[in-house]
Specification:
The complex is a heterodimer of chains A (212) and B (259). Chain A is mostly helical and 212 residues long. Helices cover 80% and strands 0% of the residues of chain A. Chain B has 259 residues and is an alpha/beta fold.
């Protein structure tokens, strides 16, 4: 009951922080998609880049998030604002699943379809837009879905550098040893993650090409 | 006899240091159906793919309409050549009409003409446009998919048709049906056709001439009667294997007798 009262009292703040949280995730995902999908496509055209690029993205993934936020602090322009740092770090984390899934999705297109398309005289660009991207869209989206859910979780840590978001409650709750505060951050974050997972999962299923 | 539609002049193809085909001297006459016959690994599919430059020859020259394929713009070359493969290669996310209309669209034909072309091509392969236009490939049987594959290959009105084991994945009945239909279509459209198969019966049914390949080498090019009557030991072996299939009890692989 006390929890309910708490949520009621703080609904305005919860809403504000949720919007902040969504902004961090949406902005970082936007950047990650804009960079990650073309990078994944590039890897299918230049396989020799696969090892260094996927390897690099893997290394980023192994850096603890708090440390990555810290590393970015002294960076010029980026370091001037906490949300810039948070968005950059989240976008970096999101890159691996997006690049990898784009590459796997495109290279996984049925070789028969690919060969027929080449044989019919599709240019490389037509092949990409008419065959490869539509047929790999669900796999690419699965990568975006993983990255989004991951980002919603990691974004709570952005509060540690003052970037806002639902992590504010969690860090405050930890400092004050107040479970209600922690839950006020954790519950909306979990709901956001579940909602994103469901929506993107639904979209992914819709875009899955029929098997012949 | 005019200039051959397709010619291989001293063509060989190597991959990873191994010669997979050649040297090959072969001509395909305009309007004929030439069957490339041979067992797996004989180089027949390689030879086929050299025509539309899905592969490029290591030596020699492949000529299409008297012009080396290397000198053609590859996209233009491929759009002049219909291509049918065993797995059909239909785009699973496109309806039948979009699949069939793809090449005319790429060629920039007007929409009304494309629509007309889709209908006439579907009728040509025995599919009622009203019923099939809006279906997706996964809503078709194997035989119907292969028919759509043929319709798609012919939709751009290519001068040449390349078919790689086009009926290989079908059940025996559909295969015989499609082979017969192919003969009827070919009578009407008279495309220069190169068809790859390892099925002697199919070769004898569909070919004007049969080019026999073994281990990447051309053993010879034969007319129907030459192939049937030659005393050459290899040809005799092929014929025996084919008729042997016919006699094997309980074997149901669709090889039918051609009288």
């Amino acid at each position: 009951m006390a929890m309910w009262e708490f949520l009621k009292h703080h609904r305005l703040e919860i809403t504000t922080l949720t919007v902040e949280h969504l902004w961090l995730v949406a902005a970082s995902m936007g950047i990650a998609v804009l960079v990650g999908v073309p990078a994944g496509i590039l890897l299918t055209r230049k396989p020799q880049l696969r090892e260094p690029v996927i390897g690099g993205a893997n290394i980023i993934e192994t850096i603890p998030s708090l440390a990555l936020f810290g590393f970015l602090l002294p960076a010029p322009w980026l370091g001037a604002r906490a949300d810039r740092i948070a968005i950059t770090a989240l976008a970096l984390y999101a890159l691996l699943p997006i690049v990898r899934n784009t590459y796997v999705g495109i290279t996984g297109v049925d070789p028969g379809v690919r060969e027929a398309a080449r044989g019919m005289g599709l240019t490389s660009r037509q092949m990409l837009w008419q065959v490869e991207l539509p047929l790999s869209m669900s796999v690419i989206l699965a990568g975006i879905r993983t990255a989004t859910v991951l980002s919603i979780g990691i974004a709570t840590i952005a509060a540690a550098i003052g970037a806002g978001g639902l992590g504010e409650f969690i860090f405050r709750g930890l400092a004050m040893v107040n479970n209600s505060l922690i839950l006020a951050g954790a519950i909306p974050a979990a709901i956001l993650a579940l909602a994103a997972d469901l929506c993107l999962g639904w979209l992914e299923a819709r875009l899955r090409p029929p098997r012949t | 006899m005019g200039e051959p539609a397709i010619a291989f002049r001293g063509v060989s193809y190597r991959a990873q240091g191994r010669v997979l085909l050649g040297p090959l001297e072969l001509e395909v006459r305009s309007g004929e159906t030439l069957v490339l016959l041979g067992r797996s690994g004989s180089g027949k599919t390689t030879a086929l793919k050299l025509i539309n430059r899905l592969l490029e020859e290591s030596e020699g020259t492949v000529l299409v309409d008297g012009r080396p394929t290397r000198d053609w713009d590859v996209i233009t070359l491929r759009r002049r050549i219909g291509y049918v493969i065993q797995e059909t290669g239909l785009f699973p996310h496109y309806t039948v009409e979009r699949n069939v209309g793809l090449v005319p669209k790429l060629l920039g034909r007007p929409q009304a003409e494309i629509q007309q072309r889709i209908d006439s091509m579907l009728r040509l392969v025995g599919l009622e446009p009203k019923e099939f236009r809006l279906r997706y490939p996964h809503q078709l049987s194997g035989g119907q998919r292969q028919r759509v594959g043929v319709a798609r290959a012919l939709a751009g009105d290519p001068e040449i048709l390349l078919m790689d084991e086009p009926f290989g994945a079908l059940d025996p009945l559909s295969r015989v049906e499609l082979q017969q239909q192919f003969l009827n279509i070919q009578k009407r459209v008279q495309k220069t056709t190169v068809l790859v198969t390892h099925d002697v019966g199919e070769a004898l049914l569909l070919a004007n001439r049969i080019a026999l390949l073994e281990g990447g080498k051309l053993l010879g090019v034969y007319t129907q009667s030459e192939f049937r009557e030659s005393s050459d030991a290899t040809l005799a072996a092929y014929r025996a294997a084919w008729s042997g299939n016919l006699q094997l009890p309980g074997r149901n692989d669709g090889h039918v007798g051609i009288s």
